[in-house]
Design goal:
9 helices, globular, two-stranded antiparallel ribbon, 2 strands
Length: about 260
């Protein structure tokens, strides 16, 4: 029997170790935003954590950290201490953090609200993290200006009314394309994808010629599918069958790779 102290033994065998701490922290951030978005075993683990008055007291750190990084970059020199701020300023700072949390909610769970069912047949359940009320905001805050934390949305000085910030997040993450990037562990890759999506509000700006070329590729792919189906009825075959969007994707990758030399 080992004479090793209980705490040391626990740390040696526990999944909560320094090597996988970032992964667990990311899961916990996701759990705080939407508990149903994590696996059942992890949800049970997080549910078992100590609570105060029966409620989880933790808040997501990602938006808070990003906000203060932005503050440090945009306001060199001494910043006013908490005692120097008026009640009105303190309230605005508190809501600023909540706006960052709202944006993080759209980046995490915006795809659950995307309009991916044009026939409206599926029963849809939006994440609570996409509502103003969930983050302690309301319609009275819509005309108040807040920082966005990044230049991705293209607002001057990264500042815009909450109404415009919410509209940009809705258009980008809750439009007709579902975008999900927060599962990516490489921060540089994730930020690059966010930039590509957010700077265009989820709608790439293509020339008329480029749009016609993509349409021609889609039409050709669909025509080939119908031709094979008619010529070889009942024969087992492999085709796109709903994956036609792969055609413009591959075409764009090839074209961009060619342009880069």
């Amino acid at each position: 029997m080992s004479n090793e102290p209980d705490m040391q033994s626990w740390w040696r065998s526990s999944l909560v170790s320094g090597g996988n701490a970032p992964y667990i922290e990311a899961l916990f951030e996701q759990y705080l935003t939407d508990p149903q978005s994590v696996a059942e075993n992890w949800r049970q683990f997080f549910d078992s954590l100590p609570r105060v008055n029966g409620a989880v007291t933790d808040i997501s750190h990602q938006g808070v950290q990003q906000y203060f990084r932005t503050q440090a970059r945009q306001a060199p020199g001494r910043r006013a201490g908490m005692d120097d701020l008026s009640e009105e300023a303190l309230e605005h700072e508190r809501k600023q953090v909540q706006v960052m949390e709202l944006l993080a909610g759209y980046r995490h769970r915006g795809h659950t609200k995307a309009n991916l069912d044009p026939l409206g047949l599926a029963e849809r359940h939006h994440s609570r993290a996409l509502s103003l009320e969930y983050h302690g905001l309301n319609e009275a805050d819509l005309d108040t200006k807040f920082r966005t934390g990044t230049t991705f949305f293209g607002f001057p000085d990264n500042i815009a009314p909450l109404r415009d910030i919410l509209a940009a997040a809705e258009q980008t993450y809750a439009g007709t394309v579902g975008v999900e990037t927060m599962h990516i562990t490489d921060l540089e890759e994730k930020r690059w994808l966010q930039q590509q999506v957010e700077q265009n509000r989820g709608v790439p700006k293509l020339s008329r010629e480029r749009e016609l070329n993509l349409l021609a590729g889609l039409t050709s792919a669909e025509g080939l599918e119908q031709h094979l189906d008619g010529k070889y009825p009942g024969v087992k075959r492999f085709g796109l069958q709903g994956g036609e969007s792969l055609i413009p994707l591959l075409d764009t990758l090839v074209q961009d790779a060619g342009a880069m030399g």
